[in-house]
Amino acid sequence: MKKLLPFILILLTVISCDAPEMPLPGITGKAGELVVVMDEALWKGPIGDTVFNILTKDVYGLPQPEPTFNVVHIKSSAFTKIFQTHRNIVYINVKEGLKNAIELKTDVWASPQVVIDISASSTAELNKIIGTNANNIVGHILNKEQSRILRSYNVQLNKTLAKDLQAKWSLKMSVPEGYISISEDENFSWLRHENIDINQNILLYSEPYEKENTFSKEGITEVLNKLGKNHIPGPDEGTYMSIYPDYPPKFEASSLGGNYAAKLVGLWNVEGALMGGSFVCYAFLDATGTQVIYLYGFVFAPGKNKRNYVRQVDAILSSTQLN
Q1: Which of 100, 121, 153 corresponds to the end of one domain?
Q2: According to the model, what pLDDT value does residue 70 have?
Q3: pTM here?
Q4: What is the pLDDT of residues 150-177, one digit of tens each?
Q5: Sign of the Cα pseudo-torsion (176, 186, 318, 313, in order)
Q6: What mean pLDDT is predicted for residues 96-111?
Q7: Mean pLDDT of the region 230-254
Q8: Residues of the domain holding 272
Q9: Do 257 and 210 belong together in one domain?
Q10: Are residues 163 and 287 in the same domain?
Q11: Could you tell me the maximum CA-CA distance found in the chain, to the nearest angstrom?
């Protein structure tokens, strides 16, 4: 019996070494939330104000002010397991002798998680890192938020609409269950998701590529106003949707499926009625290069915060790929 003992010990050792790693837990926290881990004294000082202001900047194109992220501060000594599974974490450590660096990490304590790890040897160096990388930090987290939305939507894809979009528009789009087709024309489609509180809308429209200002703020606004007047009636006869002129839409160059797209965000209203909300639009060429396709997403959610609803619509539009 004594001769068998070493073999058993070796076997146990081998088994324990080959044991699979435990999977990471799922993330916690709501969409748009972010945890900043930072010493209390720094958070209450000027550098803390800088970090907070960058992460809570008002989102453009919303009727009421809403921050980019809902920020929660946790002091470093209190950053225990209960907070480590949060979806978005910015971890800031300032100490003499530390290397000045910023690391973009994923799935450190949970999945699908993003962690921004910033280390600095002084508050002056931290200020430089934050100032230089502010847009990258915000953009990285927003991209991760969008990928989470699409991860969920791709699991619950509306296969009927996917087939219809492929047949009519020769494109793929991650439209989830809950959306339905409410209007169709030769060069126009209207999809909607609606519940008691909100409705989210996606319009597809095409026209020949003939105008020089097609991919400009003015050109896209002109098309959206035409769409509103011809296809999106208001609650009363003679009323219709248009781009709100007193809030200039924001234009930026973007891409869809690796192809150039012009993006416009702003506010819409209804001519002759007290209705309005947020919109996002992409304009791009079809595979032939002869037709311009417009993807027009807008949200109507009276009395509700709209940031996350707009991001959901934007995620669907941004998933578009030409076939």
Answers
A1: 153
A2: 98
A3: 0.91
A4: 999 999 999 999 999 999 999 999 999 9
A5: negative
A6: 95
A7: 93
A8: 157-322
A9: yes
A10: yes
A11: 96
For residue 286, give the amino acid letter.
D
The Cα–Cα gap between 167 and 169 comes to 6
What mean pLDDT is reported for the chain? 92
The token pair at 231 is 């296809």
CB 83 within 8 A of CB 74: yes
> 9 vs 113, which has greater pLDDT?
113
Average pLDDT rounded to a whole number, residues 287-308 = 96
Residue with token string 């900047």: 57
Number of domains in the chain: 2
Torsions phi, psi for 250 (to 5 deg): -100, 125
pLDDT score for 7: 37
- Residue 191 and residue 210 share a domain: yes
